[in-house]
Amino acid sequence: MESRLKDRRVVVTGGAGGVGREVARRMLDAGARVVSADIPSATDHAEGTATFAGDLGRQEQVDRLFAFADAELGGLDILVACVGLPADSLMDIDDAGWRQVIDANLVSYVGCTKRAIERIRAGGRGDGQVILVGSISVHIKAIGESVYNASKGGVALFAETLRKEMMSEGIRVTLIEPGAIATHLQPYPDEELQAFAKAQEMLPAAEVAEAILFAATRPPGVDVVTLRIEPLHQKVC
Question: Does pTM surpass 0.85?
């Protein structure tokens, strides 16, 4: 695993969140060079990353991020998009709120992926990768998750279609679909999150990061298309 990531140039969005931080830390440990991006108020980035603060639902901030990555990394091999905002159901959220969720959970993925692929193409290595974190919620379709599922359902269809568009260039696109994760996206304090993880009702963020690292360390020609990971006792309604 370490040899396959050594000196790889990586951008992780949502990098100060539970999963993003774990991914960035593991990438660094394996010898990669990492830019970690998140909103300005999120400051818990993995030690050793180059950090960027901005709202990636806005194209000008996406462009700023990738200009920053150009300066820090001198190119790009892997994008890992981990941004995720929770949401109330459509009729329980105001218009600004649902637009913010769609911008964060879907628009940022599309904008960052386009800029990432431009740089992967320019690098000419032919083995770049885009890893997009979706959610199994799009399969469960639970009451109250209409807005969230609109965003993550968009990510799933985007990833599955883009993969076909990119395969002729050797650029792999992977969709990771986690179940409930014991991070602060859940509306519970730390002690309750730990209890959910211990009861196998939520995934530790580290386990989702391991799934992402598995996809990121397959050799060229081995394409992890969709990887679904969930706790043993995942709620289904």
Answer: yes
Q: How many domains does the chain have?
A: 1
Residues 6+ apart with CB under 8 A from 155: 105, 106, 109, 132, 133, 134, 175
Query: What single-letter DSSP state applies at residue 203?
Result: B
The label of the residue with tokens 């970690």 reads: 36
Gap between the terminal Cα atoms of the chain:
37
pLDDT tens per residue, range 74-86: 999 999 999 999 9
Closest C-alpha to 131, from 154, 118, 151, 112 = 112
Residue 118 in any domain: the answer is yes
Domain span at 176: 2-229
The answer to whether the CB of 73 falls within 8 A of the CB of 115 is no
CATH number reported for the structural domain that contains residue 161 in this entry: 3.40.50.720
